[in-house]
Amino acid sequence: METFKLGVKPCCYSLLLAVFGLLASLTSIADAETHYHQFVVQPTPVTRLCRTRNRITVNGQFPGPTLAVRNGDTLVIRVINSAQYNVTMHWHGIRQLQNPWADGPEYVTQCPIQPGGTYTYRFTIIDQEGTLWWHAHSRWLRATVYGALIIYPKLGTPYPFHMPKREVPILLGEWWNRNPMDVLRQSQFTGAAPNVSDAYTINGQPGDLYRCSNKETVRIPVDSGETILLRLINSALNQELFFAIANHKMTVVAADALYTKPFTTQVIMIGPGQTTDILLTADQKPARYYMAARAYETAQNAAFDNTTTTAILEYKSACKKGLQPSRPILSQLPAFNDTATATAFTAKFRSPSKVDVPTQIDHNLFFTVGFGLNNCTRPNSPRCQGPNGTRFAASMNNVSFVFPRRTSLMQAYYQGVPGVFTTDFPPVPPLQFDYTGNVPRGLWQPSTGTKLYKLKYGSSVQIVLQDTSIVTTEDHPMHLHGYHFYVVGSGFGNFNPQTDPAKFNLIDPPQRNTIGTPPGGWVAIRFIADNPGIWLMHCHLDAHIVLGLAMAFLVENGVGASQSVIPPPADLPRC
Ligand SMILES: *[C@@H]1O[C@H](CO)[C@@H](O)[C@H](O)[C@H]1NC(C)=O
Ligand SMILES: *[C@@H]1O[C@H](CO)[C@@H](O)[C@H](O)[C@H]1NC(C)=O
Ligand SMILES: *[C@@H]1O[C@H](CO)[C@@H](O)[C@H](O)[C@H]1NC(C)=O
Ligand SMILES: *[C@@H]1O[C@H](CO)[C@@H](O)[C@H](O)[C@H]1NC(C)=O
Ligand SMILES: *[C@@H]1O[C@H](CO)[C@@H](O)[C@H](O)[C@H]1NC(C)=O
Ligand SMILES: *[C@@H]1O[C@H](CO)[C@@H](O)[C@H](O)[C@H]1NC(C)=O
Ligand SMILES: *[C@@H]1O[C@H](CO)[C@@H](O)[C@H](O)[C@H]1NC(C)=O
Ligand SMILES: [Cu+2]
Fold first, then answer.
1. So what's the pLDDT on residue 116?
2. pTM value?
3. Ligand 8 being an ion, which residues bring their Cβ within 5 A of it?
C-alpha cells in the first residue's frame, strides 16, 4: 500500500499515457485530510477515431482526474462551469449522510450550475472504502465528464486481501463521433431511440480494434508472477458490458466499494454505475494479452454498439528483446445476448461474512420498471419517430418521472415551496397485470408525475424491482442515491410473493448501490432509511432516465440534529 505509482518503464511502446495520467494523483496520503480540488468544466479538443472534436471535460482531462482519498477524509471540490451547458456533479456511491446538498442530480438535490457559475461540493467519507467514481448528473454530459474516486482504508487498516503493489483504474466508457448532447437532443425531438455510440473506451481510448486508435491503446505492464488490482468502473452511458482478459482468470474482491467474498471468474458483467475490484495474477506465458469489453445487450430488436474496446496487458519480459511486439492474444467474450453467463456471474456475489439484513420490513414495496410508448395525435409527425408513429417513454409503477424545472426537489422541500412534487408515489403498481407476459397494448402508455415516496427515518424497506415486457424486457441497472442496499434475491418471470421470499439470502447477501433487473425478471433489495433527504432512484442507462425511468424517496428527519439534513451551503445554485 506504500506505492500507488506505476513505477515502471513501459516496454513495447514509448508511453503509457492514459495510465500515467490517471494515476498522477495517487501519491501517498496522510490520515483524515481535507482535499481541495478545482474542477473546471470546459470544452476541450479531444481526438478519437481520426477526428478532433470539442468535448466537455474536467480540467481538460478525459477521463477526468482521479480523486484518491482515505476513509474519514473530507473533499472540497470547487466546480467552475466554463462550458455552455448547465452542469452538476455526482459522487457516485458516496452516502452523503445528512448532506443531500452534495449529491448532485440536477433538479433533485440542487439546481444546475449555470454557465459561468460555480458551486463547491463539500463532503466527508464516512465508513466507506473501495472504488467509486464521480460524474456529471446533468442530461448526457457524463459521456465525457467522469473520473475515478478511490477511497483507501484509514491509515493502519489493512485490506481484507493481500494488497498488490500495483493497481490500475480501468474506466469503461462510450464514445460518440457526434456531440452526445446533440444525440440526446435529436432523440428527444423525434421520440425515437437515441443513436448508438461509435466506440467503447478503456481509460478514454477505444483501442487498436478501431481505426486510428492503435498508438494510444492503453497498456498495462506486469511482471511475471505478480498480482495487480484492477479497479473496474462502468462509466458507459447506455450499455452493460462484458469484460475479460485473454487466458487469465480474475478474482473479484469488491463491488461498488463494498467487499465481497472473493471468487474467480473468466468474465465480468458490469452495468453502468457499477464498479468491480479484481485481483489479477500474471501467471501465464510472458506475452501480450488483450483485456476487452463489449456489449451485454438484453433489449429485443434494439440497435446497439456492437464494437469491442481493448487495452493490452503486457508482460515486461515479453517485450525486452527489442523486437516488434507480437499481436496480443484475443480475449473470449460471451455473445451479446448471453444472459445465462451474466446471471451466473451476478449470482456469485456474497458479502464476506454474515451481515445484518433487516428482517422486520416496514415498507414492502413492489415497483415495476420498464418502457412505454406514448401515442401521438399526428403519428406521421417528425416528433413521433418511435415504433409505429409513437414516442418512447419509461416508468416505474407506471409513473414516468418528470424532473421539476422551477427549483430542485430538495430546495422545494427545505424551503416549503408548494406544488413542486407530491408524495403519492404508489407502493405497488396501480394495476396488476402479467408483467412479463403479453401486456395488452392499451396499458403501454404510462402516466406522468413528480411523485416521491415518503419514508420515516430509520424505517426498513424492501423493494422488489420487477422488469416489464412492455415494448421489450431489459436489464435495467437501477441506482439508489444516498444508500447502499442488500440484494436479497432475484429471478426470472413475475415475482411470486408467496414462494420467492423463502429463497431470499438473508445471511450473506452482497451490498451494492446499483443492481440490474434481470431481463424479464425481478430483483429484491433491502435497506434501512437512515439517511434523511431526497434521494433519486433511477435506471443508470442515461437513455432511460431521460424517458422517466426514475422516482425519488423523501426520507424524513429523525430526532435531533444527528438525524436531520444539515442546512444548505450558501452557494447552492438557484434556478
Ligand atoms: C443519428 O443517426 C442517423 C442515421 O444514421 C443520422 O442521420 C443522424 O444524423 C444521427 N444524428 C446524430 C445526432 O448523431
Ligand atoms: C456483432 O459483430 C460480430 C462480429 O464483429 C458479428 O459476428 C455479430 O453477428 C454482430 N452481432 C450483431 C447483433 O450485430
Ligand atoms: C442470441 O442472438 C443470436 C443471433 O444473433 C441468436 O441466434 C441466439 O439464439 C440468441 N441467443 C439467446 C440466448 O437469445
Ligand atoms: C407496429 O405495427 C406493426 C404492424 O401493425 C406490428 O406488427 C408491430 O407489432 C407494431 N410495433 C409496435 C412496437 O407496436
Ligand atoms: C395507443 O395506440 C395503440 C395502437 O393504435 C392502441 O392499441 C392503444 O390503446 C393506444 N393507447 C392509448 C392509451 O390510447
Ligand atoms: C398507466 O396509466 C395510464 C394513464 O392513467 C393508463 O392508461 C395505463 O393503462 C396504465 N398502465 C399500467 C400498466 O398501469
Ligand atoms: C439551465 O438551468 C436554468 C436554471 O434551472 C434553466 O432556467 C435553464 O433553462 C437551463 N438551461 C438549459 C439549456 O437547460
Ligand atoms: Cu433502464
1. 98
2. 0.94
3. 476, 539, 541, 544
What residue's CA is closest to ligand 4, atom 5? 388
Task: Say yes or no to pLDDT of 138 above 60.
Answer: yes
- Give 333-371 pLDDT, tens digit per residue: 999 999 999 999 999 999 999 999 999 999 999 999 999
What are the residues whose beta carbons fall under 8 Å from the beta carbon of 308, sequence distance 6 or more? 200, 207, 209, 292, 293, 294, 333
Look at ligand 4, atom 4, and give the residue with the nearest C-alpha: 388
How far is 392 from 472, CA to CA, in rounded Å?
A: 12
Lowest mean pLDDT among 29-43, 81-95, 544-558: 29-43
CATH for 173-347, among 1.20.120.450, 2.60.40.420, 2.160.10.10, 2.40.50.1000? 2.60.40.420
User: For domain 363-563, is the CATH number 2.60.40.420?
Assistant: yes
Contact call for residues 167 and 228 (beta carbons, < 8 A): yes
- Domains 2-158 and 363-563 belong to one CATH topology: yes
**pLDDT tens-place string over residues 209-243:** 999 888 889 999 999 999 999 999 999 999 999 99
Q: How far apart are CA 489 and CA 473, in angstroms?
A: 19
| Beta-carbon count within 10 A of 35 CB | 15
Q: Which residues line ligand 3 (CB under 6 A)?
A: 335, 337
CA angle (168 as vertex; 165, 171 as ends), nearest 5: 165
118 within ligand 7 shell (Cβ under 6 A): no
Q: Which CATH number applies to 2-158: 2.60.40.10, 2.60.40.420, 3.30.2290.10, 2.40.40.10?
A: 2.60.40.420
